Amino acid sequence: MTTATRTASLEEVAARLAGARRLLIGTGAGMSADSGIATYRRVGETGWQAYGKTAGVDAADLMTPRAFEEEPARAWGFLELRRRDCAAAVPHPGYAALHAIAARAPEAFVQTTNVDGLHPRAGWTGGFHEIHGSIWRLQCVGPCSRSFWPNEQVPWCELEETGLARDWPRCPACGRTARPHAILFADLEYTGNLAPEAARRAFHEAGPDVVLVVGESGAIPTHAHDAQTLRRVRGACWIEINPDPGARGARLTDLYLPLGAREALVGLAELL
Question: Which residues are known catalytic residues?
Answer without folding.
Answer: 132
